[in-house]
Amino acid sequence: MVKNTLNNERIVIFLGVALVTIGTLLLSSNYFNEKADYAYSYMNNLLLDQNEEIYEMDEEVDNLEEATSSFQEEETEVQEEPKKYVDPYLNYYTGYIEIPKINLSKGFTKLGSPYNTVNKNVEIVKGSTYPDKEKGNFILAAHSGTSYLAYFKNLYKLKLGDVAYIKYNGKRYTYKIVNIYEQQKTGRIAIYRDTNKTCLTLVTCTKDVKDKQTIYILELEDIKNI
Q1: Are 94 and 159 within one domain?
Q2: In sequence order, which ranges of 78-149 are alpha helices (DSSP H)?
Q3: What is the C-alpha separation between 51 and 148, in angstroms, rounded?
Q4: Which residues touch 98 (CB under 8 Å, ≥6 apart)?
Q5: What pLDDT, on a 0 to 100 scale, did the predictor assign at position 19?
Q6: CATH number where 181 lies
Q7: Within 10 Å of residue 101's Cβ, how many Cβ atoms?
Q8: pLDDT tens digit string along 9-36?
Q9: Distance in angstroms (rounded) separating the CA atoms of residues 207 and 216
């Protein structure tokens, strides 16, 4: 009888210890599961935050690349400045004609020069005298029209009283227009001027008229050293 009682007590104690152990394990399991869930959530959020920062940085890099690309495109679109025009006959000029009203400034070479032709420059017409010749007549001819050689293309804008300048041999000669007339193209120029005056005569084709030329007679007004 006593033996059975002891066995029963041992069983009860064993069961009690087992229950306590199981309960402790269950509680521990829940605790660790909660900790594991927390740790997982924390790491997941941390990774998400890191990805978002990386994305923002990528956006900044993209923007920088776009800005750099745009700058490079703008840089490639910048064209070199056009080279300054250098007159190939510059070293051969003996003087210049200037007419401020039509923004004309062009050199001329000397009589007998191979560059003294309307196909290259403003031409000194054969038979002319230079500006320093008293009562002489300095005659210049050039193309009109639209070609790059049309140095007299705007002479048609000139009126009586307008002025032109000749720079020659260290002096500036000032002339004033006193007569403008037209004549047929015949290969010759009929010049009507006061032979008691020192003159400048300009000759070019008449604007929009193929078979006529216009002659501008100018008389000397002043001479200045330059």
Answers
A1: yes
A2: none
A3: 67
A4: 104, 105, 164, 165, 166, 167
A5: 57
A6: 2.40.260.10
A7: 12
A8: 565 565 665 655 665 555 555 554 554 4
A9: 14
